[in-house]
Write a structure and sequence with these properties.
5-stranded mixed beta sheet, 11 helices, 256 residues, 47% helix, alpha/beta
Amino acid sequence: MRLPILVFNIETTLDLTMGAHLHGLSHLPKEDVQQALNKLRRQETGSDFQRLHLHEISCISGLWVSEKGLRLFSFSQNEYTELEILEKFLSIFEKRLPILVSWNGAQFDLPVILLRAMYYGLSAPRLFDQGEIDQQKRFNNYQNRYHQQHIDLMDSMSMFNRQNFQKLDDIAAFLDLPFRDKMAVSVEVNSEQAVIKTWLIYIRWMLLKGQLTQSDHAKAIQNMIVCLKEQHQHHEFLTHWQAVAKHTALSRTFFS
């Protein structure tokens, strides 16, 4: 398994200011704008899930996996502006070119990052170059669906068939991993837990593909347990994992 790996997840809110501007709703009180935007979107698609450019990034979380171990982090609007969040995330790629791992990242997370970065006039060639600057990127880049520089697990595990797409929490529950903590106290905790589950599914995927041995998979699980024990905000998540891990012979070994 190639290192370093960056498992990432974004959380977003509706950009009411931009939505009002684009749809001619600036005359409405702010509290009415979201209702109006949702109504317009439902009329258009039957769902109130907004277009990608109207998703303002409120948090980007990541799990950095390297020879030195695991490091869990979040950049959120509790501390930074959206611009600063993007600058911090994109600066990672100025120094390293990690393997990216996500759940639905090719459909949602990366396109939102791309659009919001363009809005602020940012440049991120090492993330978005497809061979125009570095010709080697033609053969392995972060955008191509079938390359290995960015692995969107939802896409890969569906065998690239949209009809087989599954929700992260459903697959986590299926594999005896904790599903999303609806009582999580903050957007950062929610986002980090999505990252943790994505990582745990990823190493099971690597085990299936023969890129991790059983012993290496077990070691990766134990490293994640140790990491969670050091993160007080995830103690209930860890307790939940220990409870659901009793269901199958494999998962029972995680806490034996």
